[in-house]
Amino acid sequence: MRTLHSIRPRLSAAVVATVVALAGMVAFAGATATPAYAASGCRVEYRTTWATGTQFGTSILFTNTGDALNGWELQFAFPGDQRVTAGWPVTWSQALGSNEVTAASNAPWSDNLATGASITLGFYGTHGGTNTDPTVFTVNGTTCLSVPAANQPPAISITSPQSGQLIQAPAPVQLAATAIDDHGVARVEFRVDGTLVLADTTAPYAGVLTGFPAGDHVLEATAIDNGEPPLRTSARVPFHVAAPTGALVVTPTSLVVPDGGQSFFVVQMTAPPPSAVIVFLTRTGDPGITCIPTTIVLTPTNWSTGVVITCTATVGPPATTVYTLSATGYSSVSTILTRP
């Protein structure tokens, strides 16, 4: 017959073994259940999309390269005196007198950023000195990989002349273009029919050309940026220059100027010009006969009455002088003056 004390030790050992095994299981399970913090990682590409004077616009491509985010703050500091004036599509802040800027998610659609997901941010800004790009960015305190943005070509648009515009000679040809670039515009070059006629380094990019021959022409405007390497973009428009209407007329074509006296001739046009015509008087021959004024303007209102030219001869031996009248877009005419 068994006694109780011979069974109890064995039962105690079994219970102990079970408890120990259970304890080991609990300890292992506890180790595997320890929570892990999200691994942070980010990539930022900062690009100045346009710059004009003291104003500029910027695009920032922020990519989450770490664990999924639920709420984030992107922070950076301007190297200079730049100020953010407006930003999107999240909340932007920059304390007065500070160069540090924060862009923070502000809605469920922007809070949650999965691994590998990107969001594009943008802002407008101003500066008083040099607009140098920031290079250090953090997201939730983690420093991001900052990738320099590749230089982008400039954008250019010709505003004058309009495509297909008819310009009546001798009216001047007005050249104008607008150009923007993320690194700024170094210059705008204007070419007519392939020939460089103007280069402008400051906005507004414009100029005036006179004396263009009648016929069909093509204006090409090219913007060159300040990037490295410099990039260029061109725009082209056709235009037509019509031959001038009317002609210069001088009456009379020969004139006697008395010794020590005066005579007169008149400069007119055979038809009204589309705009003011500047006429230049050039003398060849004896300097003892002079005429004034040496520059006149014929307009749509005085073309038929013309302008009177006064000629004076000094006292001296017989002499001859020729005055030639010329204007851009018109054939030259002349009158012969003699002192008997």
Automatic annotation (TrEMBL):
Matching SUPFAM superfamilies: Carbohydrate-binding domain (SSF49384)
SMART domains documented for this protein: CBD_II
Gene Ontology molecular function, alphabetical: hydrolase activity, hydrolyzing O-glycosyl compounds; polysaccharide binding
Signal as UniProt keyword: yes
Keyword Zinc assigned: no
InterPro entries: CBD2, CBM2/CBM3_carb-bd_dom_sf, CBM2_carb-bd_dom_sf, Ig-like_fold
Any one GO BP annotation for this protein: carbohydrate metabolic process
PROSITE patterns: CBM2 (PS51173)
Annotated ranges, domain CBM2: 35-147
Signal peptide (residue range): 1-38
Short name of one Pfam family: CBM_2
Keywords: Signal
Designated name of the protein: CBM2 domain-containing protein
